[in-house]
Write a structure and sequence with these properties.
The chain is mostly beta strands. The protein has a single domain, classed as Calycin beta-barrel core domain (Lipocalin, Beta Barrel), CATH 2.40.128.20. The chain has 3 helices and 11 strands. It is globular.
Length: about 180
């Protein structure tokens, strides 16, 4: 969709916000650093002998009158050569992040229509990191973690419970490209 059409779209006008809601902005800081545009190196441990390496992108902003943060995660990046058809590990999905003052936690709702993959988690600060806990479709614990967070980069890990520990499935090494 052309940028001028997007800006005049009734859906975009109703969805997008230029700032966090004043009544909640203090508690929105856990994820507000994510707002902007990011590129990332992706390492996926898909069960083969060698991990799959590709590039991806993330775009995040305020939505719903600043009461939530929504982001779009795309792997491979849209400008990657030979994008199609989708391979195992590809996705084009969105996360809605909503702060719940009663829980002092964030509801994380992920939807990927490429793979028909959905996840619901709770996100909280753990020291300087953010940990999102949930379960997969089999009831196995999963966690997604943001670590090494700076103004210009972060490391994201997707893990699944395995035995007494965690099995690493995916890593993103992201760099900010625009605010």
């Amino acid at each position: 969709m052309a940028p001028d059409l997007l800006q005049s779209s009734p859906v975009a006008e109703a969805l997008l916000s230029d700032r966090g809601a004043a009544a909640r902005v203090e508690r929105m800081g856990l994820y507000s650093w994510l707002i902007g545009h990011w590129e990332m190196d992706v390492v996926q441990h898909l069960g083969g002998s060698q991990p799959r390496r590709t590039r991806g992108e993330v775009h995040a902003g305020w939505v719903l009158q600043g009461r939530a943060i929504q982001d779009v995660w795309i792997v491979p990046a849209r400008d990657a050569a030979g994008v199609a058809p989708a391979e195992r590990g590809d996705f084009y999905g969105t996360t809605l992040r909503i702060y719940d003052p009663g829980l002092d936690a964030w509801h994380i709702l992920w939807a990927d229509p490429v793979r028909q993959f959905y996840r619901r988690q709770l996100g909280r600060a753990h020291g300087r990191d953010i940990v999102q806990d949930g379960e997969d479709e089999t009831g196995t614990a999963v966690r997604w973690r943001f670590t090494e967070i700076t103004d210009h980069s972060f490391h994201w890990l997707g893990e699944r419970a395995a035995g007494d520990g965690w099995e690493l499935n995916t890593e993103f090494f992201a760099r900010r490209v625009a605010a």
